[in-house]
Amino acid sequence: MGKLEEFRQNTLADIRSEAEENTQYVSMQYLETITANLSNYNKCPVAVPCFYERTGRRNRKLLIHGYNFDEFDNTMSLFVCDFSGDAEMTTITKTAFKDYINHAVAFIEDSISGDVEESTDSSDDGYSLAQDIRKNRDSIERYFIYVISDRKRSDQFNTFEEKTVDGKKLVCRILDIEYYYDALMELSEPDSIHIDVKGISGIDGLPCMDASIGDLDFQSYLSVVPGIFLASIYKEYGSKLLDSNVRSYLGLTGDTNKGIRKTIQEHPELFFAYNNGITTTATAIKRDERGNILEFENLQIVNGGQTTVSIYNEWKKNNSAVDALYVPMKLTVASPEEAKKIVPNISKYANTQNAVKKSDLDSNTEFQMKMQFFSRNTRLPQSNESMGSRKWYYERTRNQFNTDPASVNDAYNFKRQYDKKRKVDKLDFAKYRYMIEMRPYVVAKGKEDCYNKFFKPDVAKQWEENKDFFNVNYYKETIAMIILYKAVYAEIPKREWFNGRSSIKAPLTFYPISKVLYELSERGMRLDLMRIWENQVVDDTVLRQILNTARVFVEYIDHIQIDEGKLATQWVKREECWEDVKKLTVEFDPEMVNYSVTDKQYATSYNKAEIIEKEVQNSAVKNAIVIKTPAYWKQLKSWFEKNLRTLNAAETTIITRAINKNALSDRQVQKLQDLIDEAKANGFIDV
After folding, report:
1. Residue 168 near residue 144 (C-beta atoms within 8 A)
2. Residue 446 within any structural domain of the chain
3. Strand partners, 164
4. Model's pTM, two decimal places?
5. Do the Cβ atoms of 128 and 501 come closer than 8 Å?
6. Are 211 and 202 in contact (CB under 8 A)?
7. Are 103 and 165 a contacting pair, CB within 8 Å?
8. Tens digits of per-residue pLDDT, 592-635?
9. Are residue 173 and residue 200 in the same domain, yes or no?
10. Nearest Cα to 436, choosing from 402, 472, 483, 390?
11. Distance between CA atoms of residues 494 and 500, nearest Å
12. Are residues 117 and 178 both part of a single domain?
């Protein structure tokens, strides 16, 4: 059996297990899981389930299994799941793929005409999606259709035709099992984006100067690109042009963006002088005899997202607004193999030159390491040894669970300690924290948005103020929230009032959880998450209260969709939705008091955990200081005097005590650590 076949069998086994746990159809679980995982690699958005299969106008088949609307660039993505579930791997032909695309296109067209709404019950997920497409057809910039398959595409299946629907660009993709395997193994090449400069913008070519230095495996170029070129390519491809790292730094309402807009509107001829330009990469370019760029393969904007989006937005309002506007461009051209090595660093370093604090990056890395430490060193309560998995696994990097040296070198013992059902990645971790913080409208925006908002501004700020807050209790209560979420998520479909509402299954879980936490907070209480951690299960009373709340939430969502004509999956992303939900009347079980703690009890418990954490950290720092040799301290002292500054009297006394191996107080140990940190920040290599 080949690696791909083995990978497919293991994937299907995991999917079936997830489907059983979540009371979900296997095909829909496949769609959810595969798109969620591929979204981590920026290959496609996460599919919101929306099962719709009908015969439409002119006897055409209409078929949709999921969708995702990206408000960032107004892209409507539709999904069709081709799930065979066969024991042996079979192939999907190009003819079958075209049929799926035609069924999805028919759904779009019948949605725009209003036929889907006329022939579908208003409680059906397809009705709401069709209504949203019809109402927002003018604002939708482009359509993507993804066919997600557990089969392998046939060998002859290697081209995609350009299409349009409703006058908008339509991009069609097949994400088969081999594509999924390559993505997870990081073997896949970038999604193909071919740009013909003249064809897309009417410009004959982009002037270009070779800026390569030395004998490298990539080429560097400098260019000046017209605003119309950037506006045109963004109109065509949207955020597919933006490296995922760019979107995590993009803030389209900040002062930087306001300044860009003001320059475009008032002084477009000065844009080149005022703007830092954009940094781009490509896997290949074509130039004419004069050196002008005629074509790009897989162009990516790794820095300059605000510039590009702002130019596009102004051009969309007034096509002549960017006629006199030119932008500096730095371009790196590397093969797909070389790009995997250098593009992440180009993206990282280009973006960290913006107004992003170093602490936003470094403290979060330390945060990630800390959560990983807790994961590897915090066993489940002993009463649960019989469960067969003694720890939860925090996945700090992509695919870490599968490539962990412990799993590779000692698979048996690794599996005894960890289980895929008890794995959480850093993106999901942020989502669960926002449930605890009662911000479900942020959770609804997706894992990537949660991650960017949570770890960059929120955690970084709190980390600087009090890193001891992020102690083992913090880790345990987050794991407890995961247990709670999974328990509710699995129970929701069993309720009669769920009635196949797959597209809002996730909001039907996290909104009621946040609502119950809110109701407790109004009573000066908090849900006892540490009790859930200790038991690794959720008490029936708590589960019943959340499910009763979910039933009330369903009634609210039905009102929003049917009476107000809003698409539920978009409405739940708005803070106004949460404000409405907080006001909903829900019968509250008095027994919930027995599964809660008072704010005072919670604060006392957390303060103790912070004190313990501080003691642990102080001990770790002290041990790290004590083991350093006198030669090290002499080297540090000499380095300060030669490279940075003269040590003051107090600092000299402390470092002399360290050289002489004299006893040190906790305060002196911390001062030595501060000196090390200061030196390292200025180029000292700590060995």
Report:
1. no
2. yes
3. 169
4. 0.72
5. no
6. no
7. no
8. 999 999 988 887 776 666 655 555 555 555 666 766 888 888 88
9. no
10. 483
11. 10
12. yes
